[in-house]
Design goal:
alpha+beta; about 35% helix; 4 strands
Length: about 90
């Protein structure tokens, strides 16, 4: 989770889970409500590595943009936070 400095609410947050049923990636704070990112899920299902997450292009078209961060900034945060979450899950943090 990357906190917005004034409110301390999540500017963008990412949840990553790898289970026997597959990989799930949920994103909050970046769009209109919480959503799953299917592109990241597909990439991580093939290779659960930070590099696989980094290779996914995050489309900023439907993301929030305000004084705290542009849609492009939030797209970058989704990528970076996903890479960090995967690294932590693999014990690489």
């Amino acid at each position: 989770k990357f906190k917005q400095p004034a409110s301390r609410f999540a500017l963008t947050g990412v949840f990553v889970a790898q289970t026997a049923g597959g990989v799930r990636v949920a994103v909050t704070g970046a769009g209109n409500g919480v959503f799953r990112h299917q592109g990241l899920e597909a990439a991580l299902a093939k290779s659960f590595t930070p590099e696989a997450a980094a290779a996914v292009k995050i489309d900023a078209a439907d993301l929030n943009s305000d004084i705290h961060g542009s849609a492009a900034y939030r797209a970058n945060l989704i990528s970076v936070l996903t890479q960090r979450a995967v690294a932590r899950a693999l014990g690489k943090s």
